[in-house]
Amino acid sequence: MTAAAVAITGFVLPTAASAAQPATIRPAAVSPDAAVVITEVYGGGGNNGAAYNRDFVELRNVGTTPADLGTWSVQYGPASFGASTAWAITPLTGVVVAPGDALLIGQATGANTTLPSFTADVDGRIAMSGTGGRVALVADQTALPGGAAGTGIAALPQVIDYVGWGAATDFAGSAAAPATTNATSVSRSATAANTGDNRADFTAGAPTPVGSADPGPDPDPDPEPEPQDPIVIATIQGTGAASTYLGQTVTTTGVVTASYPTGGLNGYVLQTPGTGGALDLAVHTASDAIFVYAPAAAGEVALGDTVQATGVVGEFNGLTQLSVSPGAATKIADAPAPSPASVSWPSSESQRESLESMLVAPQGTYTVSNTYSTNQYGEVGLALGDEPLRQPTDAARPGSPEAAAIAADNAARAVVLDDGATTNYLNAANSALTPPYVSLVEPIVVGATATFTAPLIVDWRNNAWKLNPTAPLTGDGSGVDEVQFSNPRTAAPAAVGGDVKVASFNVLNYFTTLGTDTATCVAFPDRTGDGNTVRDGCGQRGAWDAQDLARQQAKIVAAISTLDADVVGLMEIENSAALGETPDEATATLVAALNAAAGEQRWAYVPSSTELPDPAEQDVITNAIIYQPAAVTPVGASRALGTQSGDDQAFGNAREPLAQVFRPAAGGERFLFGVNHFKSKGSAGPWPGDADTGDGQGASNESRVRQATALRDWITSIQGDVDSVYLVGDFNSYGEEDPLQVLFEAGYVDAEKALGIDSSSYSFSGLSGSLDHILMSGAARERAVGGDIWNINSGESVALEYSRYNVHGTLFSVPDPFRSSDHDPVLVGITAGADERVVTRTGLIALPPVHINRVLPATLLATVSGTSGVAGTVEFREGATVVGTASVKGGYATLRLPSTLSRGIHRYTVVFVPADPETALGSTSRTAAVAVLF
Q1: Fewer CB atoms inside 10 Å of the end CB: C or N, the chain?
Q2: What angle do CA 115, 390, 703 make, to 5 degrees?
Q3: pTM exceeds cut of 0.85
Q4: How far apart are CA 696 and CA 399, in angstroms?
Q5: The CA-based dihedral angle spanning residues 117, 137, 191, 379, taken in that order and rounded to the nearest 10 degrees
């Protein structure tokens, strides 16, 4: 290099004499050559489900000299601009960024300030969108053109870098970066790769704010390090969380045990020859392996090679790595290969650190605990042992030492099985791919055991300990993936006994009013752009078109038909009245589909109660009750808690409870069946106690407590003399949380605990627990003989859901019960019980027993005995023919036979028909004979 300054990517590289001074910049439109780039954008901070309490924008100096950003700014605009839209500005006055360093710009803090935070290098106040928008890195502090001119920003000379994501109508390159949620950001790869195309450069994932204190991987390790003696890998790793050689250039030797030239990890693993095998983690305190970050040189070595490599030691988000440039690793004479370490998953961080990047053959039982992210990132949450991880508040009171112990046990047992790649399988660019581990041949289900058929690498990425294969996996839906999963599925629920079965089933937004029915609806699309489900823009929440509804309905029908309960409470079914449609239209459609599948009129539904409030006060989803008339008979009209639906009332943010009294059709004791769907945990309601306090109960806990209290009081007011009460539904409350305590204190018991059901109805973030319950009054508990939670939904991969049809390169659509919803149905069998109606006895005599035509007609005398005051009529019958009727008075009724009858013996019976069949049972007499003479 000459002594003259050389212009590079918008900076002036100083001469040797001025190397310590920050480089000045010249404006340049967005280019792959930019020396300072936007590396991450997060706009969901402080929102519901957010990872952090504030938004941020992260920059990185990928050049070779300090960058003076003192006159620069970061500017934000919404996804689309209106006539008056302007850019919001955060100045970077006084900021200088060293080469390789990151700059973390904190933006607005959201409503939930209790979430984790971070230390920002620059504090801004811009409130950014959690789903999509635009961020520009600008070489001045003047607002960019707004209004109708807010397009073509990437081409402006003062714009250094520019990111449009989500629904942004302006962006750099061919398309916007993926949309985000409150829990995700868009970020570049670890190398801050920059092609100038937002869609190609950015992926959505968990936010990872990095500031100047965490420089990440060195963008340009010294290409010509000074020769030095090799250092053993364990010495480089050390016994702490971070290497003591941080930032130093070292040389080491090892055998390549894993290679990731594709898939995004951009490197390989070296392990000291001959290490591994049977390790005692009490004395093995430093790892014998290290990840080699070599984005431009990962293909220079192969699995099994013995390699000497020289590079810079770094810690990338907690993973010790060696950054190696092309040509800095050479193959040397073969050395003894390492052996997989035969260890059970360690519970302590220090022991896990001692295995970081090492080859292992995991020992012990591993149970699948999380399948949700398998669909997106090809990773499976595992738990050491034979049980999935547990929601602490499902088994212990929130904030208790017992709940803390469960959380600690979860942390000790959890590990993620990954696919050796960073691929986001929901990114449009990867839509032809299939996530590893997802298969119809070998379904991946929470509760399954995992048997590893090949060694794995202990890894630390995305703030989680992982087990990675030694090379990136390519999914094809075949189930061939270096691990074998057991299949815990059952073809039907367990036998629960009893004479009548009652159930709860959340049907996941079953809507017969489709997205295509309303022009303003916006779809979640499949990989071809065809809609699958409604995203927003209208009242609908379910299927996008008729084909999507058919796929959804086929799975729900298969599930309910096989569940075969006699009474089923449904949640998340379309409230047709609230959409301006015919009331109960969706419920009637589902019942018709069930009957068509049964080949007979097996099912019926309870009509919506007249006690519901005006449809304008109701949610677009509702509760419903369906039943089998051959098994149960509704008694009286349906009921609803319709007086608590105002914004300042208990059910202003939830679905009104419904109830119906039933009696076993063959006779038996009545029971009251109530269906409920309380406020969700995801967003805060209007009450003071609705903010998420961090005790595990989520947001809107006070809303749910108020709903439980109102439900308790309402049921008491309507049950009358019906002692057996079954409250079913999605209470959005785990087993030991406050809302259920209200009902427990009122005398209800949870069928899951009372009947010894050993599974849960829901899985969230890898933790299993029950939000769906069947609560029983004392008398109802005495009638319950068995129960089950049929695990067909919550533990299944979401890839099987109708809403993910044709999202991947492999179709997983099957019209079976599995992943028909995201909640599992709960089932309880009960006895018919003793019929509380008055039992009557009916007798019949003929006076006289001889009938002489035209001379002496006989009279039939019926007697009805039972509790006094039972009213009704009797039917006098000869065979099946009713020959007369009479009211019962004083326990008697008479019928004088006609003056002329055919000669011979006539035989009569009488049937008592009570005036109120719900207070007394009918009865039939014995036969009385009359001889007709002459």
Answers
A1: N
A2: 55
A3: no
A4: 8
A5: 50
